[in-house]
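A.,

Following up on our hallway conversation. Structure tokens first:
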């Protein structure tokens, strides 16, 4: 990659150039983000997976920019207008905005007022005015009255149109205006449609709204732009037209000298027209897009962090599970799963009105729990979830059976998906949804990777942000989570395996097919027998796959096969077999890391190996915990200001955190109510699914909104 780009990426990310250069070389060599961050720390100086992903993002951006530069240079060259200076300016561009500014005067144009004037032969008159030397513009213009031009005034108008377009296409003028607009305020005002449409009420905060462009919170801007898209408000920037016109005219005079008075009048008129007709809408759009790009990045980061916490939520592990998808009229769908998540049985109970078959429901639950030796119960947290949990607690199950409330966001999406149909072709959507609820309690990561992250209810305006950027972030997050936990090679589904470094959908299916035909893998080395899984893919994936009970215990650890020989040396130095070293913290503490550094394996890698040997294959996730809401709170009418309640964080945004307190409506802890001075950054104070204690501070019955204050995390 061009050193210009490498230097810029390093400066942007506060890294050394060699770190960026090596990282890009590894990516170009086919290495994945997880592999680079975990097993190539010496090459990158210990960059995290987030940093490696960011380097990859910018490398992709500049690769596309190079293609765009080549196209622009070709177009300008074909016009015979490409000078050495212009070519150098284009080649040195680091900003797409700067690149497009340089290209704008040469971009093939549709029909404009300026192109019409040029076609009418008025460009020489425009050049004369542009020079500032015309002392009698009317007389000069009279010479161009011919053909389609019927008067001197019409000739001057055409010349001014040409000048206005020139001004609007001048890179320095555009950048000057951007600088001014960035210091102004973005405003939204209600439209006639917004005043009359009942559905516009949700945007009423933006019917008369104004805030500096540089300070507008991401959620405010995205909401305003959505309201504008729906026709309920009009968004603009309150640029001072008079100030902008004077600045453009002053800059023109600085570059060209002060014109003759009569000529200056024509130029000022043309410049004012350029601002009002061409530059203001264009620069407003650019600055708003710039602000939205920033808002998109912030929102995508929030979504990515929420998704990470959701995927790494504590699992209960391999337990025999009863899962219930609650409902009133349609009943509660009940499924029983074995410790591997296989469906054993399913039924429907009606413990709630309107049918209220409680006795039958109690018998069904008790019989299924006994027959399938149920250890934990997962109850969906949606409609009738609270009531179903109350019912299950009164059934009289053994005290050893733990009961969990599980978010069912996305379960219906899974149940109707191709994945759901493929896994359970003979079951209906209600059974699939209940199975998903049970499996996500057992292992949230393994189950949630089957569902589009945008359906999991943990984002902020996810449908309004740049979808390409969002997909990139979410894909990186899922890949990062899967590889940080590791995957059991002999039990993982193809949907989970495809996120392992270097595998993907095709190889994941090939692995599962090979496993089905040949039985469980006995070693990582056997992966090389899988069709189309070559040495490169093996290098990328092997360290993230686990084989419990393998003959070589290192195959069930994060130690990469390329480093097994180092462990052999460590064991030999302690005069013990590898099997005795793995998992023995006392022995591991006796190892001098520096003694095992090699040319290709530096101290960071050796230290990682020793750390992994102490607790091989350790799951970084916490243990799942049960939770109970306040018994006396059932409806929003039961709330009173000052009440202290337990709750669970269900979503985190830039402006606050939503908390489930056991009602149909989630409460909001605004960023200013998080127990820190000033406005908190919610994602730095709370985590998704965190159990908290909150105080009710406001209740809006009409809008179903509950304001909360954080008391205890």
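Then the amino acids I'd put at each of the 713 positions:
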């Amino acid at each position: 990659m061009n050193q210009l780009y490498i230097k810029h990426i390093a400066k942007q990310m506060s890294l050394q150039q060699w770190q960026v250069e090596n990282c890009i070389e590894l990516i170009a060599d086919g290495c994945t983000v997880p592999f680079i961050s975990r097993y190539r720390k010496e090459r990158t100086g210990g960059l995290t997976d987030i940093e490696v992903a960011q380097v990859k993002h910018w490398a992709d951006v500049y690769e596309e920019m190079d293609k765009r530069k080549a196209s622009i240079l070709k177009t300008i060259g074909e016009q015979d207008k490409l000078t050495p200076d212009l070519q150098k300016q284009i080649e040195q561009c680091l900003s797409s905005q700067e690149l497009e500014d340089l290209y704008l005067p040469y971009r093939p144009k549709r029909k404009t007022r300026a192109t019409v004037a040029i076609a009418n032969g008025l460009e020489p008159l425009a050049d004369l005015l542009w020079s500032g030397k015309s002392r009698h513009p009317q007389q000069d213009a009279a010479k161009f009255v011919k053909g389609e031009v019927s008067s001197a005034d019409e000739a001057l108008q055409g010349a001014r149109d040409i000048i206005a377009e020139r001004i609007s296409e001048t890179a320095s003028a555009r950048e000057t205006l951007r600088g001014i607009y960035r210091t102004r305020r973005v405003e939204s005002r209600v439209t006639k449609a917004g005043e009359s449409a009942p559905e516009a009420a949700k945007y009423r905060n933006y019917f008369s709204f104004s805030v500096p462009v540089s300070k507008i919170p991401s959620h405010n801007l995205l909401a305003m732009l959505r309201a504008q898209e729906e026709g309920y408000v009009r968004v603009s920037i309150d640029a001072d037209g008079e100030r902008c016109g004077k600045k453009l005219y002053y800059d023109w005079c600085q570059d060209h000298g002060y014109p003759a008075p009569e000529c200056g009048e024509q130029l000022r008129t043309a410049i004012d027209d350029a601002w009002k007709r061409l530059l203001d809408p264009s620069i407003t759009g650019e600055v708003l897009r710039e602000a939205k790009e920033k808002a998109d990045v912030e929102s995508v980061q929030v979504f990515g962090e929420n998704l990470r916490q959701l995927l790494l939520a504590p699992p209960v592990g391999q337990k025999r599970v009863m899962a219930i998808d609650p409902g009133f009229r349609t009943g509660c769908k009940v499924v029983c799963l074995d410790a591997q998540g296989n469906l054993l049985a399913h039924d429907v109970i009606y413990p709630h009105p309107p049918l209220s078959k409680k006795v039958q429901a109690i018998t069904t639950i008790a019989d299924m729990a006994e027959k399938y030796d149920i250890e934990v119960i997962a109850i969906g947290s949606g409609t009738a979830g609270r009531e179903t949990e109350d019912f299950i607690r009164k059934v009289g199950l053994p005290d050893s059976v733990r009961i969990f409330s599980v978010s069912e966001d996305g379960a219906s999406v899974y149940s109707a998906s191709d994945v759901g149909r493929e896994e359970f072709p003979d079951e209906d959507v209600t059974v699939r949804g209940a199975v998903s609820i049970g499996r996500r309690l057992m292992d949230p990561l393994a189950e949630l990777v089957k569902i589009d992250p945008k359906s999991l209810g943990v984002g902020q305006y996810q449908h309004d942000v740049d979808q390409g950027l969002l997909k990139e972030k979410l894909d990186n997050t899922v890949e990062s989570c899967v590889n940080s936990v590791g995957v059991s090679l002999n039990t993982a589904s193809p949907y989970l395996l495809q996120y392992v470094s270097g595998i993907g959908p095709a190889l994941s299916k090939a692995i599962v097919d090979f496993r089905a035909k040949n039985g469980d893998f006995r070693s990582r080395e056997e992966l090389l027998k899988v069709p189309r899984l070559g040495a490169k893919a093996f290098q990328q994936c092997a360290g993230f796959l686990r084989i419990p009970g393998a003959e070589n215990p290192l195959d069930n650890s994060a130690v990469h096969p390329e480093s097994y020989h180092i462990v052999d040396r460590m064991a030999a130095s302690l005069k013990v077999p590898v099997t005795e070293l793995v998992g023995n913290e006392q022995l591991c503490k006796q190892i001098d890391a520096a003694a095992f550094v090699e040319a290709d394996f530096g101290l960071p890698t050796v230290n990682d190996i020793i750390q992994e040997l102490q607790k091989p294959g350790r799951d970084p996730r916490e243990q799942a915990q049960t939770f109970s809401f306040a018994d006396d709170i059932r409806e929003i009418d039961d709330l009173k200001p000052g009440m202290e309640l337990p709750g669970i964080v269900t979503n985190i945004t830039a402006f606050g955190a939503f908390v489930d307190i056991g009602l149909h409506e989630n409460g909001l802890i605004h960023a200013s109510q998080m127990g820190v001075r000033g406005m908190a950054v919610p994602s730095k104070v709370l985590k998704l699914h965190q159990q908290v204690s909150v105080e009710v501070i406001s209740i809006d019955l009409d809008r179903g909104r509950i304001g909360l204050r954080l008391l205890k995390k």
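The radius of gyration is 33 Å. Curious whether your intuition agrees with the design.

B.
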